[in-house]
């Protein structure tokens, strides 16, 4: 049944955690959709919440989920133009989208996202914790307490908030998918706080998958660790000299595109991965991390 209702959370995001999104000025333009993708109703009738869905990996995942038949509830920070594009594309695919704008590091906002999603769709089957921010700093002395707190709030606290909020509303055999990073395994000299949160996400994923409550409810918990992916976060947070060679250090000698990540999330969200939990899928252009 066609459903075109959209819901906007009227909360003004805190200015101290906004990062400029330069997707309109990026060259080449980042790609969030693969035109030759063959959907197979792998998520038909399922309801998914995806955070950080206005651009990049989150947008690519949201579009792929919609193609696979999922009802999607999407969360972004404040990039209205990119968000509108993703919203309209999903409407073209399925007509079904809820949209929330606000701070994922605010537990009250998270609770509201979940309660409105349940009010609209009845329950939840998939949670994709993808929202993140990063700030390049050459010295640890440049990492302020405010930045440290903000990065952890967005990147890892939000995952605790969302899991806690969705748990009472999860259907049996629900899935949680967390976005970590190759930096959790290789480190990053100039992204100390960001890399630290990504390491925490790996530990969170593995630990949560072993939690007896998750096991009893047959909830699977996994993660995806992207390598260098060409998304709006990169030009917004990367020094100009590094942008020119971004991605060339991996064996495939190029940055990945967001749409190249989406099938990994579809796999983990579907029954195709029914014997997979506590694992991390590495989509990184060939870097061997042994993790």
From TrEMBL:
Matches recorded under PANTHER family: NADPH-DEPENDENT ALDEHYDE REDUCTASE 1, CHLOROPLASTIC, NADPH-DEPENDENT ALDEHYDE REDUCTASE-LIKE PROTEIN, CHLOROPLASTIC-RELATED
Family membership: Belongs to the short-chain dehydrogenases/reductases (SDR) family.
InterPro entries for this protein: NAD(P)-bd_dom_sf (IPR036291), Sc_DH/Rdtase_CS (IPR020904), SDR_fam (IPR002347)
Keyword Oxidoreductase: yes
Keywords, alphabetical: Oxidoreductase
Pfam families according to UniProt: adh_short_C2
Keyword Oxidoreductase: yes
Protein species of origin: Pisciglobus halotolerans
NCBIfam families: PRK07231.1
Name of protein: NAD(P)-dependent dehydrogenase, short-chain alcohol dehydrogenase family
Residue span of region Disordered: 1-31
GO molecular function: oxidoreductase activity, acting on CH-OH group of donors
């Amino acid at each position: 049944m066609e459903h075109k209702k959209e819901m906007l959370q009227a909360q003004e995001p805190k200015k101290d955690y906004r990062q400029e999104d330069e997707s309109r000025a990026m060259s080449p333009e980042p790609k969030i959709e693969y035109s030759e993708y063959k959907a197979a109703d792998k998520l038909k009738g399922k309801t998914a919440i995806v955070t950080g869905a206005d651009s990049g990996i989150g947008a690519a995942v949201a579009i792929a989920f919609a193609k696979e038949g999922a009802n999607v509830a999407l969360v972004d920070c404040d990039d209205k133009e990119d968000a509108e594009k993703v919203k309209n594309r999903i409407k073209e695919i399925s007509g079904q989208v809820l949209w929330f704008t606000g701070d994922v590091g605010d537990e009250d906002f998270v609770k509201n996202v979940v309660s409105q999603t349940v009010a609209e769709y009845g329950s939840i089957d998939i949670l994709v914790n993808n929202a993140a921010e990063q700030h390049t700093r050459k010295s640890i002395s440049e990492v302020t307490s405010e930045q440290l707190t903000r990065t952890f709030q967005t990147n890892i606290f939000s995952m605790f908030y969302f899991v806690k909020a969705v748990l009472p509303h999860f259907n049996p055999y629900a899935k949680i998918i967390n976005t970590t990073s190759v930096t959790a395994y290789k480190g990053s000299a100039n992204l100390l706080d960001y890399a630290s949160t990504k390491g925490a996400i790996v530990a969170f994923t593995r630990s949560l998958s072993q939690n007896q409550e998750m096991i009893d409810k047959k909830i699977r918990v996994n993660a995806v660790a992207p390598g260098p992916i060409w998304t709006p976060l990169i030009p917004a947070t990367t020094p100009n000299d590094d942008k020119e060679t971004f991605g060339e250090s991996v064996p495939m000698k190029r940055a990945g595109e967001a749409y190249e990540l989406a099938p990994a999330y579809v796999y983990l969200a579907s029954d195709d991965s029914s014997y997979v939990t506590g694992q991390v899928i590495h989509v990184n252009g060939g870097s061997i991390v042994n993790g």
